[in-house]
Amino acid sequence: MKIRQSLIVLFFLCMVVFQSAHAEYRVFQFAIKAKNPFSLDQKSHIVTSTLDPQSYLAYHGGTETLSIDLMRTWMCRGDTSGQRICSPPVMQNETLTEVN
């Protein structure tokens, strides 16, 4: 009887801990272009994905079919349930100074 009560308390304690857990994932943005010279679409396209460039390339035909250039990457933090891909963080304007 005491073991059963302990298991019930442990179960509810685990539920409280798991409810407060947060996930995160990395988002990649890259430019892709078909390598086939006879492809109908020769323009470069911007793709935003949770797949890293190597995985994206392997999934979509390999190095013989696509070229990929990574543009930027960011993390989606916090409660990510119900979201497709979070927006990139806002970049602050930085003034570049030329050094002579």
Walk me through the topology.
Elements: H1 2-19, E1 25-34, E2 45-49, H2 53-59, E3 66-76
Antiparallel strand pairs: 1-2, 1-3
Structure description:
The protein has 100 residues and is α+β, with helices and mostly antiparallel strands. 25% of the residues lie in helices and 26% in strands. It has a domain of 58 residues. It has a 3-stranded antiparallel beta sheet, with helices on one face.
Q: Keyphrases for this structure?
A:
elongated; alpha+beta; 3-stranded antiparallel sheet; 100 residues; disordered C terminus
Nutshell version of this structure?
This protein is of the alpha+beta class. The chain contains two helices and three strands, in the order H-E-E-H-E. It has a domain at 23-80.
Radius of gyration from CA coordinates: 23 Å
Largest sheet: 3 strands, antiparallel
Structural class: alpha+beta
Helix-strand topology string: HEEHE
Adjacency order of strands in the biggest sheet: 2-1-3
Low-confidence stretches: 96-100
Percent helix, as a range, is 25-40%
N- to C-terminal separation? Answer: 81 Å
Number of strands: 3
Identify the overall geometry: elongated
Total of helices: 2
Overall mean pLDDT: 79
Percent of residues in β-strands: 25-35%
